[in-house]
Design goal:
This protein is mostly helical. Helix content is 75%, strand content 0%. The longest helix has 25 residues.
């Protein structure tokens, strides 16, 4: 907060007291910062939160349990579509 006030006052002094320039600069900075953050999220550079990480590890454990109990490697009809496995996993839990 203090850094923002200092930046605002210094820009106001550099702009000879023109408040419109300060508001325009703030708007441009906000838009460019938001687009940068959205780009990080879309590209996957943003790290997962703890809740997402916990959920992913729980799903991996549950799927490992499901696979151990229900999937038979090389059994009859060895070709199974991914959607069939996903549906069976949903029914399992």
């Amino acid at each position: 907060l203090a850094l923002g006030v200092v930046a605002d006052r210094s820009i106001l002094l550099l702009a000879d007291g023109d408040k419109d320039i300060c508001l325009q600069l703030a708007g441009v900075s906000l838009i460019s910062g938001a687009s940068l953050e959205l780009g990080r999220i879309a590209s996957g550079e943003k790290d997962a939160t703890r809740a997402e990480d916990d959920r992913d590890s729980m799903l991996q454990r549950e799927f490992a349990e499901f696979a151990e109990r229900r999937l038979i490697p090389g059994g009859r009809g060895a070709n199974v579509h991914r959607s069939e496995i996903a549906a069976a996993f949903r029914r399992f839990n």
